[in-house]
């Protein structure tokens, strides 16, 4: 039998061999940095937020220019009015977005993540607020480690109040894309509907939580794009990389150091403290890297100070790094077959969609034959069929439509009157179609309804229907 000492040693060995699959979260304190890529990132922050916050306030034809009107079941896009029947264009939009994502990722990695992703954008905004209130990186670390004082409480409350205000305005703006913003403003604060209140606070809550607290954890653990981006990369994809051949072995430039034995990297760690996801780019390409370029902005000034060329960390490709390509060779390898194929497909889809929208007739008509009365004989002996015509006027002015019918000898409408439909509205009318009894044999016959707008010959459609002879 084993002694107590042997059992104790085995237990300690088993505990030492145990591996935890959960890494305890450590708050990342990102240092402010200035540089070319940071300037580009902030340019996209301004661009995306001006578009997002400003679009609901644009006016077109005395209405909101961009509006997914849920109550009216219409999508207004400046002068274009789309109905549920136009869901095809939503599918096209999703396809274009997917191909655009494939194309940009294959060319330059996670550009969207680093510059235009809402998670990145709002994290930047929230961190900017945090830095202006609590101070720089060292001041924030000191503040968090210190005791709860009146100053600390004041700073924290101010920061969170601003975060909540930004989040609420963001949630309100999102809802303004689905309910006219003027109606929302008029309903504040207690006249909002249940769903408007829910989505405002729901989106605001997620904005506050993800941009204020989770931040890099969304990119590392929640975002699926970070996981499958690897299948869209290849050795000729532009990514942010550290040049180990030039940088290693790294070391500080001390007076007693043998500079001839050291690489260009001084091991200052700035590339780590400015990274919003907290990775060390010197360890190679990692899925957590969002391609923001902050590490480049941190490294280049250090290289200039020690008299070394910029670009120890840079946008380049694996092949360029390994084979020492020049700029012209890098560009030449970017234009590879998959990039050309993605580009051609994207151009064709966009061109076809643009042509479809340009030639789209702003009128839709559904023709439904009245099934309660298959056919009947009129007073004059002719045969009648009854139809319900549902007109959808997708223009933004009142239209008068003329209805005609053909397809059978002697076919005509019992009453030929124009149909008026208000702008961006629909209207259902009942029409009676008559034919002479000798116009056709017993059974179903094909007829056509021809609908034209008065004063605009381009607005004309032809709809097929069936006429039953007894």
Automatic annotation (TrEMBL):
KW Nucleotide-binding (keyword) present: no
SUPFAM superfamilies: 4Fe-4S ferredoxins (SSF54862)
Transmembrane segments: 39-60, 87-108, 161-178, 184-206, 339-358
Classification of source organism: Bacteria, Pseudomonadati, Pseudomonadota, Betaproteobacteria, Rhodocyclales
Protein name: Cytochrome c oxidase accessory protein CcoG
NCBIfam families, sorted: ccoG_rdxA_fixG (TIGR02745)
GO molecular function, one term: 4 iron, 4 sulfur cluster binding
Alphabetically ordered keywords of this record: 4Fe-4S, Electron transport, Iron, Iron-sulfur, Membrane, Metal-binding, Transmembrane, Transmembrane helix, Transport
GO annotations of cellular component type: plasma membrane
4Fe-4S ferredoxin-type domain span: 255-284
Tree of life domain: Bacteria
